[in-house]
Design brief:
Structural class: alpha/beta
Strand content: 5-15%
Radius of gyration: 23 Å
Shape: globular
Largest sheet: 5 strands, parallel
Number of strands: 5
Distance between the termini: 25 Å
């Protein structure tokens, strides 16, 4: 059988980025382009940028770092007030937009467009960072288009999306593209050791399991409960034998994702409801009860949408883990030299690989991708996951 031994991932990266760029692991080429713009190269600078890359590659961090560097008198030192406030969202001339809802509507975009027309009050540019530009509605994108076509002086738009295809053509054609790549396992592990003080063995394990997703790697390395939840998901392929098990595991996955979403949003929901109730004067004389109830209902709908997104994200993470698992199975079946993501489960993966052939494994991976598409199309989570697990048993 092909040698699947684990290799150390904590070797230092080939180039070390410094200052405001230091956390952008493996993005040396992208950073070089952004630095040229910051340094005043008139051919490198433009008013609208589209930063794309796979999950965990650091799209939002790249946009924030670029925003900070544009305001910094030293081009991104990382230590000055301009850098610190730009990164945190406290800089008066840097607007950071990230939605917890399923979409960014036209009203929010119009507010940004109005801000984009203002001159900077303190910094060198008026910078607007839209971290989830792929979530803009069609009306929102149309509202943004004119501002990008006819930009105000010293205004810079930074849009982030997974791929260029996630942004409407009329907008992406007017932006300069920065493409990020998935960081190497070694680079992610090195960052965890150097920046977060993670034990090298734990850093290697977490970086490999996260498949280049820096934020996910950090969570896995620091939170034993998250690691245990991941291991529970990875036992599913080994345990599946018949319909009853498929339905049981599907229900457990969906219920767990719903509980995680509720836990993640509960405190924020409570705070938002209390703040809105106070601003409406609930419990005081003279309040218009009908208007107040309508406002509270609108907030509740927004909170429900946010919780739905959190649940969908949790299920998507589970599907990502299952995809990696079956890719490992396929590697064993085909004798690939590629390092396994789940090397610690080699015995289990080898047993699953022996049950049938590569063609069935490829169909299982396709079924997982089909489930992700179904969830994006608002298919009921339980139905989508049940259908998937049945297909994993009989592809």
């Amino acid at each position: 059988m092909t040698d699947m031994t684990q290799t150390s991932a904590t070797a230092a990266p080939s180039e070390v980025l410094t200052g405001i760029w230091s956390d952008l692991v493996g993005q040396e080429k992208a950073v070089a382009s952004l630095k040229r713009a910051v340094e005043g190269d008139r051919h490198a600078m433009t008013h609208a940028w589209l930063i794309t890359g796979p999950p965990g590659s650091g799209r939002s961090n790249t946009a924030r770092a670029f925003a900070a560097a544009l305001q910094c008198p030293d081009g991104g030192c990382g230590d000055c007030t301009q850098c610190r406030t730009a990164i945190s969202g406290a800089h008066p001339d840097v607007t950071l937009v990230r939605t917890d809802k399923l979409s960014i509507g036209v009203a929010e975009i119009r507010d940004l467009v109005r801000r984009a027309a203002m001159s900077p009050s303190l910094g060198q540019h008026q910078v607007l960072v839209v971290e989830d530009s792929d979530r803009m509605t069609e009306q929102g994108a149309n509202a943004l288009l004119k501002s990008i076509e006819e930009p105000a002086p010293r205004t810079v738009w930074l849009l982030c999306a997974p791929t260029v295809d996630d942004v409407v053509p009329t907008i992406r054609s007017r932006c300069r593209l920065i493409t990020l790549r998935t960081p190497a396992t070694a680079a992610v592990a090195h960052l965890l050791v150097d920046r977060d003080g993670i034990d090298p063995v734990d850093a290697d394990r977490a970086a490999r399991a996260a498949q280049g997703h820096i934020g996910r790697a950090r969570l896995l390395a620091r939170d034993a409960d998250i690691w245990a939840r991941r291991r529970e998901i990875l036992t599913i392929p080994y345990q599946l034998r018949g319909l009853a098990q498929c339905l049981t595991h599907a229900q457990r996955l969906v219920e767990t994702s719903a509980a995680d979403a509720a836990a993640a949003t509960a405190a924020l929901d409570e705070t938002e409801t209390a703040e809105l109730s106070e601003s409406l004067g609930m419990g005081t004389r003279g309040i218009r009860a009908r208007n107040a109830q309508a406002a509270l209902k609108e907030l509740a709908d927004q909170q429900k949408a946010r919780q739905k997104r959190y649940q969908r994200d949790a299920l998507d993470q589970a599907l990502t883990e299952l995809t990696a698992y079956y890719r490992d199975v396929l590697a064993v079946q085909t004798g690939s030299q590629a390092e396994l993501v789940n090397i610690e489960l080699l015995d289990q993966i080898t047993e699953v690989a022996g049950r049938d052939g590569p063609d069935q494994t490829v169909r299982r991976i396709d079924a997982i991708l089909g489930c992700r598409t179904a969830l994006e199309g608002n298919v009921a989570p339980l139905l989508a996951v049940e259908a998937l697990l049945v297909r994993l048993v009989d592809p």
